[in-house]
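Batch job 17 of 40 flagged for manual review because the log was empty.
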Amino acid sequence: MSGISLLLALIEQGYSGSVLVVEKRAEPETQKTWCFWGEENLSSSLRHLIKRRWFSWSFSGDGQEYHHCTQSSEHAYCCLQAEDFYQYAFEKLKGLPTIEWLWNTDSELIDTVDANANNVELALKGRRVSASFGFDSACGISLPEGNTINQYFVGAWVKTSPQSFNAKKVALMSNMTADESCFEFTYILPFNSDYALIELTRFSMRDESLADMQSACEDIVNSGDYGNDVVIKKWEKGVLPMDTRIAPVKVGNWNCIGARGSMIRASSGYAFLTIQRWAQKTAQSLCSENKLSLAKPISPIYSALDFLFLKVMRKNMALSPTLFSSMAKNVNAVVFARFMTEKATFSDVLSIIKAMPIRPFVKALFTPEH
């Protein structure tokens, strides 16, 4: 998604250079759903792809439920689907003479011997290809020592009997539970009263089986909470790294992008809006100055806050439901939405900090990890 997003931004901003797109897969993975807050935060050329908007979302656990509501599209929760995004992108890009597509193709990045070289090279079908810039969304990563957290998710799109879901409200985190290694919740994205995504999510320091999680998700779907006439239409699943300490392993002058290029909010897994903003800034820099923007995809202040939050979770994962419940209870919808989109004011950041239980954060701040 990050590579196609950059390509769209380049074409929209008038890039006239040649582009080679190399992909190992035969076709893009379309069983994905991407969400974010505030449609105004998205490029105007992509807003027509927004499938649904919600002005209310909730958190629940241990018998308590907290609701956030907003009246403004500026802070609404928005969703678009990968299938729509890729269909739009390929219709926009097909037939352009400056773009060469190579699907189902193996390649190897070449590490440049000359440290001062300004180009990148690729070994491709017995030949070497050289370019001014290279972007790699599948680069290796360097894992830190000690515990790391991954986000595992398995979701079922289900068709049910009418009035099974409140179509006006997203359950961001429902039935929050945790033990010493794993924080679990159910995410419910209702497109209407009888069609929704029901997703089991785990933030875990242990290795989780997606197959076992799919079985657990089926149990949730068939629990009777959504009626007895439930049909699973399709599945989506994945694993995301949740650690600001993960560093991409670069090859030569290739630029790591996407989740492996630190373009994901480590504390939540949200990445779509960050990637779109990065794509716009990078395309603008390439088109106007023929160089890469030095701006980081995620502001250092949010990376620092995510680092501390995740450090608290690594030290006491069982505390996770309390952390998210405290934020939901003590921060309003507008502040929460601005924080999640990296548009928080100084006052917003203070509100987020004040919402948290202070002792575990002070302890984590001054205690080194081993």
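Reviewer: the log was empty due to a logging misconfiguration, but the result itself is present. The domain at 2-136+245-289 is CATH 3.50.50.60 (FAD/NAD(P)-binding domain). Unflagging and moving on to job 18.
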